[in-house]
Design a protein that fits this description.
Blueprint: H1 20-30, H2 36-41, H3 44-57
Length: 63
């Protein structure tokens, strides 16, 4: 298991799906269509603002 803040190049090539960085990077890539550079250079506030906007745009309105 990886520690947060540890280098990705630590010799452990086994993915850990519980790693929050992987989960957030996956959201940025799949839902927001961000490149890795866009994700890693964004602030947490920018990321979550984009996620909230995506949710509003992709959630059906209740009548």
């Amino acid at each position: 298991m990886r520690r947060l803040g540890k280098s990705e190049d630590d010799g452990d090539d086994e993915p850990d799906d519980r790693d929050p960085r992987r989960q957030l990077a996956g959201i940025a890539s799949a839902a927001l269509h961000w490149t890795p550079r866009q994700f890693w250079s964004s602030t947490p506030a920018e990321f979550w603002s984009a996620v909230e906007a995506w949710k509003k745009m992709n959630t059906a309105k209740a009548d």
